Amino acid sequence: MRPNATPKTRRPALAAALTAALAVAGAFGPAAWADSGTTAAPAAPKAAATATAPATPKAPAAAAAPAAPAATADGTASAAIAATLDKLSGGRVKVLRVFPAPAGLVGVAITEGPGRNGIVYMTADGSYILRGEILKSDGTNVTQDEADQYLPKPPTAAQNFAALDQTHSFVWGKASAKKELWIVFDPNCIYCHKTYEDLKSDVAKGEVKVHIIQVGFLKPSSLGKAAAILGAKDPAKALATDEEGFDVAAEEGGIKPDLSNSDAVAQVKANNAWMQAQGIGGTPYLLFRDAQGKAHAIGGYDPDTAKLLAAIGDGKPAAN
Predict the structure, then answer these.
(1) Which DSSP symbol is given to 166?
(2) Helix, coil or strand: residue 169
C-alpha cells in the first residue's frame, strides 16, 4: 500500500472481523462474551425462610478435580476449546494454535480460510470467549504481536499478480492504452464505485485500461449483478450500466441481477474463491506493475488517482 494513503474497503462481515489480528465478530454474535453452555429455564423463586431447627453441618467438600489443560504441548487446542469454537461457528472456524495469554486467558489463533484469520481469547475450560484486542499499560498491542507470531502471512502482491491467470476478467478501456490496472470489483461496493468514477475520464482518454475481476459477495444481489456484468455481450457496457445507476445512499449497483447464465455465475463464484484463496479481504483491491516491473497492490479506495496513474508502468524501458 502506498505511503500516506488511507484506503477504504468493503469486506464481508466475517472476513473483516477475522482480518488484521482482530477477534472474530459476527461468527459469535455481538456480545463481547459468549457462554458456550445451553440456556436453562430460570429457577423458581425460593420461598421466604422460616424458623427451623439448626441444619446438620455439611461434610467438607471434596477437592475439585484439576482443570483440563487448555492446550497440548504442541499448541493444539483442548477438546473443550475446540468444541466451543466448532459449536459457535457452525464448524466454519478451525484452530491454528493455542497459547498462553495475559490474565490467565488462553489465546487462540483461528482461521475460516485463506485471508480470514484472527485471534480470540478464551477461558481454559472453553466456557467463555472474549473478542477484541489486549493492550499493555504501556500501550503495546499484545494481540498484534500474537497475530504476527501465530497467524499465517497473506500472499504478497507479486504472488497475487502471478495468480491473475486463474481469474475471469474483462477489459474496461481502450486496448491501445499502455498502462494496465487490475481491480477486484463487487457491483454493490461503494468504494469500487468511487474508484470507477475517479478513473472514468482517464480510461476514456486511453491513459489506462482496467482489467475488471468481477466478484459478488457483499450483498445477496451481488452474485446476480456480477454474473449479469460478466455474462453480458459487452461486459464493459454492462459495468457502466451498473455504475451509472449506482444508488449511493443504499450502496446498490444499478444493474438488474441475472442468474440465468450458469457459466457466468460459475465464473463469478470462481473469482470469489480466488479472492479468498489469495487472502484478499475486501473490495476494491488493485494490482499493477511499476516502471521497473515490480508488482504493487492497494487494498481499498484511495482518492489520489494522479499518484496511482503515475505509479503504474507504461511498458517502456525504465530511464537510466
Answers:
(1) G
(2) strand
- Cα–Cα dist 282/190, whole Å: 12
Instruction: Report angle CA 91, 97, 103 to the nearest 5 degrees.
Output: 105
Residues 6 or more apart whose CB falls under 8 angstroms from that of 120 comprise: 23, 24, 28, 85, 107, 108, 110, 129, 130, 131
Q: How many residues does the chain have?
A: 320
Q: Using CA atoms, how far apart are residues 8 and 1, in angstroms rounded to an integer?
A: 12
Torsion 5-6-11-15 (CA) sign: positive
Tell me, letter by letter, the H, E, C secondary structure of 92-140. Answer: CCEEEEEEECHHHCEEEEEEEECCEEEEEEECCCCCEEECCCCECCCCC
Directed axis angle between helix 235-244 and helix 190-204, to 10°?
A: 120
Write the DSSP string, 285-296: EEEEE-TT--EE
As a whole number of angstroms, the distance between CA 116 and CA 79 comes to 23
Cell of 317: 524501458
Residues ≥6 apart with Cβ < 8 Å to 186: 10, 192, 215, 216, 217, 218, 222, 226, 283
Instruction: From first to last of the 320 residues of the chain, give the pLDDT tens digit.
Output: 333 334 565 544 433 333 333 333 222 222 111 122 222 222 333 333 333 333 444 444 444 434 444 545 456 778 889 899 888 888 888 899 999 999 999 999 998 876 678 899 999 999 999 988 999 999 999 999 998 899 888 788 999 999 999 999 999 999 999 999 999 999 999 999 999 999 999 999 999 999 999 999 999 999 999 999 999 999 999 999 999 999 999 999 999 999 999 999 999 999 999 998 888 888 999 999 999 999 999 999 989 999 999 999 986 654 43
d(CA 133, CA 110): 15
Q: How far apart are CA 207 and CA 72, in angstroms?
A: 58
Residue 132: all three cell numbers together: 477484541
